[in-house]
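Re: beginner question about structure tokens

> Can someone show what the tokenized structure looks like for a real chain? I only ever see the sequence side.

Sure, here's an example I had lying around. Input first:
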Amino acid sequence: MQAKGKWVIWPSYIDAKLKRKEGRRVSRKEAIESPTVQLIAEAARRLGYECEVDEQASYPARWYRKEGRVFVEAKEPKIRMLRKICSEIKGGKDAPVHRV
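And the corresponding structure tokens:
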């Protein structure tokens, strides 16, 4: 889902506790245990993305939980951005090495 040139990032997309069919978008190895919108937004900002936080939103599959969502500037494919955010949250140790 994209709104106004931004990707919507739900904490469920990177939650290691969830199965793929429950909404996780990255591999379990890359995923984060119990991510929050504040953690995601902070990591996105460190990576240079502009972002907005909506703390009152509910992921549609779990409408009863107000986990929030983060709108992140859409510079690149969503999955690549999710992987970078996960790596940044983990401290960059799993970041891919790019050699020129």
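Each token stands for a local structural state, so reading them left to right follows the chain. The first helix runs from residue 37 to 46.
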